[in-house]
Amino acid sequence: MTGRGVWFWIGAALFIALAVALALVVRNEYVFFAGFVILQFIVLATAWNILGGYAGYVNFGTSAFFGIGVYTAIFLLKAFSAPLLVQIGVAAVVGAAMGLGIGLLTLRLRGIFFSIATVAITIIAETLIINWKFVGGATGVQMLRPPVTPPFDSYIKMLFVVLAILVVIAVALARYVQDSKLGRGLRAVRDDEVAAESCGVPTLNLKLVACAISGALMCAAGAPSAMYLQFADPVSAFNLNYSVSALAMSLIGGTSHWIGPVLGAILLGSTQQLLTVTISSEINVLVLGLMLVLFVVAAPEGIIGLVRRLWRRVGKGSP
Amino acid sequence: MSAALLRVDKVSKRFGGFTALQDISVDIRPGERFGLIGPNGSGKTTLINCISGALTSDGGSIVFDGHDVTRLPAYKRTRRGIARSFQVPRPFRTMTVLENLLVAIDFGVESHGLSGDQATAEVMAILEKIGLADKARVSSGQLSQVELRKMELARAMAARPKLLISDEAMAGLAGAEIDEVLDVLLKLNGEGITVIMIEHIMQAVMRFSERVMCLDAGRIVCEGTPAQVMDDKRVQEAYLGA
Ligand SMILES: Nc1ncnc2c1ncn2[C@@H]1O[C@H](COP(=O)(O)OP(=O)(O)O)[C@@H](O)[C@H]1O
Ligand SMILES: [Mg+2]
User: How far is the CA of A113 from the centre of ligand 2 (A)?
Assistant: First the structure.
């Protein structure tokens, strides 16, 4: 392992330790309600960036994957009373399969045509669930939480820690993809797909792998939502807000490095939580839109780009 | 077994109702320097797109190095040894010149078994030969036109091809630059690589090629030694548009 790799894993371990410590010490449950959502957005944005950022395939289907993750958990719960980790694990497998299937259908399309196709996927997935009575159909479904597992004293704290672990898995995967041969191939695809293919890059295969990893993480992020709200209905599970947020957070953070979506999700996610408490959740979309416009105009490379520019300026300024 | 490295047999390509290539057949021998000429829009690029796999031909077959590659995707043809440059350069803009070539060696050469340093060394040797070594760490988005065209050739070479197809690598270049690129192609051919050169600049094609083929409106007008082709009435007509 390289020096940087060691630091990454030390950071990841500290992060999880911090999450556990918070869960054991802090009493106010609201912290974990809000924290859960922010961590969930980190996973979603990180997942989105693997296809959308590294390969440049702008995906509007995050909500489809997320919603299918929610309903995978609900199905497993109702049918088999499956425990939380099984729900998440199966959701990841379903998400990977879904990513492969959808990828095969849509990844031959380039640019805007791919993006439009992914919008349709959310609509199809939502329609399917609306017509599936076993998981509650259009009216939705209510669920009871099973007893919490020690050492946690509340279910929501446990969910928070589970999400923290999911964040580490997602970021580690994104980081691995970025530094691997797969990552370089995807970058070539993003820069020029025709040239990539002529250099021997199996462009379709790489895009499929990226789409499967991305889909697995998105579905896995959705699964714990069922227990978080103890209620699910198709309209909120497939809410387009997930698609828009994942994309916006990646773009605002910066798509060229795994840290970008993490920063974007923390910034936007906490802003959204703050606004929801202080004003109303309706204003979130507006703020999201404004920040996206601001960044596209003023800092097209996102926070990463801004920091790099500052860094260079400071570097030049010093003797 | 035939002696040809590349056998193009009755290849056709249509775009909608428009026939861009009609029954093109040609054999390229190993080590040959082959020139492909023809007026603008005659189908030269389309033919090499069909050979390299960027397009799939509608009819006919393409056999390379003893294997039928007619239906193979482009990346597999590259791995079998067909490399090409693009008429309009297509660099990976966010990458340095070195990284551009590393993509080609890592993906274009199957299980090369090289370490990162060895791959870099091999790629640097190519850049050295092509005269781009000093630009290795420069972002490809910042290259001049000549440098971009050289990088196109260098990147094609990084995939260790048996056949190199150069699509108008000299277009828009001035006197000395043309000679530079010509020298590069001759040098590569001297190392045993078969070269198909598409070129508009007649002197360059004629100096370079052992054999020349002329296309017009998707058909072969004639084929022969440079002198024969230059003297052919039909070639002169095709170029004068008579
Ligand atoms: N992708 C395409 N779609 C439609 N027509 C094309 C396409 N590519 C080439 N053509 C047409 O095919 C003909 C041959 O083009 P091309 O092979 O690029 O000619 P050349 O390289 O000899 O100048 C031209 O008339 C061109 O307009
Ligand atoms: Mg052409």
Answer: 27
